[in-house]
Amino acid sequence: MCWCSSSSTWCQPMSRSGPSMNPSSDTPAISTIFRMADHATPRERPAAGTARAAVILAGVKTEDAQTEDAQTEDANTVLFHTDGRTGVVTLNRPRALNALIHPMVIRIDEALAAWADDPAVHQVLIRGAGERGLCAGGDIRAIHDDAKAGNTASAGFWRDEYRLNARIARYPKPYVALMDGITMGGGVGVSAHGSVRIVTERSRVAMPETGIGFVPDVGGTYLLGRAPGELGTHLALTGTAVGAADALLCGLADHFVPADRLPELTAALAGAPAHEVLPRYAAAPGPGELADRRGWIDRCYAAATVEEIVERLLGQGEPAAKEAAGTILAKSPTALKVTLAALRRAAGLGPLERVLAQEFRVSCNALGAPDLVEGIRAQVVDKDRSPRWSPATLAEVTGADVECFFAPLGEDRELRLPPPPEDLSRG
Questions:
Q1: What is the rounded CA–CA span in Å between residue 113 and residue 109?
Q2: What is the pLDDT of residue 178?
Q3: What is the pTM for the complete model shown?
Q4: Which residue in 109, 139, 209, 289 is the catalytic one?
Q5: What confidence score (pLDDT) does residue 66 get?
Q6: How confident is the model at residue 225 (pLDDT cuts 50, 70, 90)?
Q7: One of 146, 180, 217, 371 is an active-site residue; which one?
Q8: From CA 76, how far away is CA 158, in angstroms rounded?
Q9: From 142's CA, which of 28, 83, 149, 345 has a CA 20 to 30 Å away?
């Protein structure tokens, strides 16, 4: 049975003074990350291609994060300064892997708007504080609580977040993103739409939403839908985290710079434009995994349904293909089918703004579906890693179920973005 309708109240427009996704002092931010089985930090992990089978979706809730004061956090969660000709944005929640909360999104958007008109600022740089990554995503614990309570704060957060993603994509000045370490979910949204996207040997880039009963957003279906062949479909359905070489191959990044050269690069950007500075620091990344797997990936993921994709993967005789099938079958069946539909539809929508409008519909409609709350419960709240998906199997998810996620929200609730001056497709 379809659980959503155009009369849903989930996605009412939220003013910037309305409810936010800012956690209270006793509700610490929980960021979405991939944790290796040996509990190594991203700085300690091997490059992409090692022990991928050991990667699982997890939540971070450190003792330090639990004691953060909410008011102090509001003021310091994102920092801004100018360094010569460069405006610098620093996501500053290192104990929560720089996970995004609503006030951060609003402040970044306001800073970018101001710098766009400032003749002294020639380019923008975004980076993450701490030693683990740029940004691990959004506060999924807050989304869980919001959806469970039937509130609309998540819709307000997404509305502003997607507007920020669109601003980044059409920013009139070079926007340099240091995608060092963990860059996932919302972290991809504030980086991979930029004009100068830099990865390092420590980068782990992913859209892991299907593991929590959600669908890639923040323009993720736009980016993955434009990856070569069916690589984007593979990454979207499995939630696989990729390293530098594969991020470059998939069009999620532009340049590789060794991590130990980032301080020099950042300092050089103070006095010269990115296109002049980068050739001195860019290098060739180490080997990736996906290029050698393009054959079976393109064959299998070109199938019309998720069921057929899984069947083809299991029939390949390749261990990595069989592993991918197992990974997919552990995800939310509904999220998998909606994700495949969203990717295929995004490819024909044109500019990012239209895709973000579709993602906003899907995200808001997902708030009323059972799998989002259940997926976050299993991965982050109770941490039993045993979600009880509903429906439980791919065969039980009907076409009507999928269409519910694309149902109109109502004229006054849709995401409206200014049309871009031109098609922003990188393809």
A1: 6
A2: 98
A3: 0.85
A4: 209
A5: 41
A6: very high
A7: 217
A8: 21
A9: 345
